[in-house]
Design goal:
The chain is of the alpha/beta class. The protein has 3 domains: 2-177, MoaB/Mog-like domain (Molybdenum Cofactor Biosythetic Enzyme, Chain A, 3-Layer(aba) Sandwich), CATH 3.40.980; 182-259, Alpha-Beta Plaits (2-Layer Sandwich); 264-416, CinA-like (Maf protein, Alpha-Beta Complex), CATH 3.90.950.20. Helices cover 41% and strands 26% of the residues. It has 14 helices and 17 strands. The chain has helices at 10-14, 21-30, 46-60, 77-84, 93-105, 154-177, 195-202, 234-252, 264-274, 289-295, 313-320, 324-330, 335-348, 396-416; strands at 2-8, 35-42, 62-66, 89-91, 120-122, 126-128, 137-142, 145-150, 182-190, 212-219, 222-232, 256-259, 279-283, 304-309, 353-359, 374-381, 384-391. The strands form 4 sheets. A 6-stranded mixed beta sheet has the order 2-1-3-8-7-6, with helices on both faces. A 5-stranded mixed beta sheet has the order 14-13-15-16-17, with helices on both faces. A hairpin with an 8-residue loop joins strand 6 and strand 7 (137-142). Helix 2 runs parallel beside helix 6 and helix 3 crosses helix 4.
Length: 417
């Protein structure tokens, strides 16, 4: 079943608010057989909302609209769509009483007069209850097609998405397709390899993926591979996705660290936990980002013992026992210093493993020999040590993020070696 999404809000077009609603809707409906074929954002303008919804209904006969259902003057979505369907707004006394009761229960005082407009419903529309806010969703149906209006606040929209929209799409998709089919995707998460490098490596096996499509999704963490099975039953989709992933894994080997929502930090902690190892970190240019990634994972305390942010060279010496002679001879961004930092962290925290990072994050501080983006990483596991140098692209924040990801991956590779 094809459908379109219209997101409403001038703030979306100005760039002050990121449109997460479209992503949530697309993922949710694809699980039950819906296919989003177009998505558009429009400002809080009644004419533009009406035109966008009318176009979506002409093409697909089913549109989901988010945003513009609040009580303020710029919330005009309901009025625009109601006019399109020829359904005048009428006061819903039952919902008005519900709003009054909700304000009273929250001890907000009397309901402001502006909220009264949220109890106005297009004639013939179905009210979709909003358990987390005051703006109800609406379902309008007619000769134009079907329009589902949902609030723009993400936490409110997500609740109503699962409560109202997903069951509706599942039912329509089942009837239109002659049976319950789905669109399922699976991510294979890789790091330490470029998009072009992955594409070249995988080219010989792409014809063996069967009815599964493959997309490359590069980002700071690495390249995610999205496998998608289209318009199959849930069981068939799971089977072909398993087969496609198994086909790719021999080529992906050490690059692939997980699937779907797997976080590399969690993968590293699990690998250390299995072997009964405790980890320490020593950071310079990442400023604590590696430690933050690790401690963001619940239960990290049984593996991660702590770390040192040794930004100044004297702290590398005082806290990590890096010999001053190494700093003078090789500089802070060097194999010798980063290896000493990892060893120093392991000794200082009595850890079984350690990882260290030092580099030139920019935008200044680079040289011909060590340009901005030059980062040295080192990891130690027991008596084994390994150091590697990277030249990361991008601005300061990107260099730092890529450095932290690579530091974690170095630990993963050494622990699993």
């Amino acid at each position: 079943m094809d459908l379109e999404i219209v997101t409403v809000g001038t703030e979306l077009l100005l760039g002050f608010t990121i449109d997460s609603n479209t992503a949530d809707i697309s993922r949710a409906v694809s699980r039950v057989g819906g296919r989003v074929v177009r998505r558009v954002s429009v400002p809080d303008d009644e004419r533009q909302i009406r035109d966008a919804v009318a176009g979506a209904l002409r093409r697909s006969r089913f549109v989901v609209v988010t945003g513009g259902l609040g009580p303020t003057r710029d919330d005009v979505t309901k009025r625009a769509v109601a006019a399109l369907f020829g359904a005048p707004l009428e006061l819903d006394d039952a919902y008005l009483r519900e709003l009054d009761a909700r304000f009273a229960s929250f001890r907000r005082g009397p309901m402001p007069p502006s909220n009264r407009s949220q109890a106005e419903v297009p004639r013939g529309a179905t009210v979709l209850r909003n358990p987390r806010g005051t703006a109800p969703g609406l379902l309008l149906e007619g000769w134009l097609g079907t329009a589902v209006l949902l609030p723009g606040v993400p936490q409110e929209m997500r609740r109503m998405l699962e409560q109202d929209l997903v069951p509706l799409v599942k039912d329509r998709a089942s009837h239109e397709g002659g049976g319950p089919t789905v669109i399922h995707s699976r991510l294979l998460r890789t790091t330490g390899v470029t998009e072009s490098g992955l594409a070249s490596a995988l080219e010989p096996v792409l014809d063996d993926l069967g009815p599964v499509s493959l997309a490359y999704l590069p980002g700071w963490d690495g390249v995610d591979l999205r496998l998608t099975a289209w318009r199959l039953t849930a069981a068939q989709a799971a089977e072909v996705l398993d087969e496609a992933a198994a086909c790719l894994m021999p080529t992906l080997h050490q690059w692939c660290y997980g699937t779907d929502d797997d976080d590399l930090a969690a993968v590293v902690l699990d690998a250390l936990r299995i072997q009964g190892l405790r980890l320490a970190v020593a950071e310079s240019c990442t400023g604590g980002l590696v430690g933050a990634r690790l401690t963001a994972i619940p239960g990290a305390s049984d593996v991660f013992v702590g770390g040192v942010i040794a930004y100044a060279d004297e702290l590398k010496t005082e806290l990590l026992s890096v010999a001053p002679g190494l700093l003078e001879a090789h500089g802070a961004v060097s194999e010798e210093v980063v290896t000493a930092m990892a060893r120093g962290a392991m000794d200082r925290f009595a850890a079984d493993a350690a990882v260290a990072v030092t580099g030139v994050a920019g935008p200044s501080g680079g040289s011909d020999e060590k340009p901005v983006g030059t980062v040295w990483l080192a990891a130690g596991v027991g008596e084994r040590e390994h150091a590697v140098c990277h030249r990361f692209p991008g601005q300061r924040r990107e260099v730092q993020h890529r450095s932290a990801q690579s530091a974690l991956d170095l630990v993963r590779l050494m622990v699993n070696d």
